[in-house]
Amino acid sequence: MSARATAILHPRARAGEADAPASEVTSNVLMAIVNARGVIDAGSAAPFARELASAVQAGATKVLVDLTQAGDVTTAAMNSLLAVRQRLVGRGGEVAVALPPRLERQFATLGLDRRFLLAADRAAAAQLLGLVGVSSPEAEVGALAPRHARAA
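Above: the chain's sequence. Below: its structure in token form.
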């Protein structure tokens, strides 16, 4: 996981040819995981928001937020998630949120299932972000129904 990976490719020179010029290939994909436990309310949302902002400032284009151990998520935390999503959408990034069923219902009620990639666990969230491939239909079990939208 690096903020900017660069590889210099040196094509093989044919016999009798001068050295071929090098080609440069770059990648700007950085994935960040933000974990949250307990209740995330107005009193505890600031550290959560700082972690999210820090991930984006570091150059992350894919953010996986793990709320599977969160007891409750209030509007203060949801506003933090929406703020980081807004910053990422402008540069082609995405946010996936791993959350338990009770929080999934809360996200759906508020329409946040159309703003975020939602999954039942980290592995499924990573898959939705395109960070891991699907090897079998059983691997898709952790992902929630694809009701998320890519709208800004």
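The radius of gyration is 19 Å.
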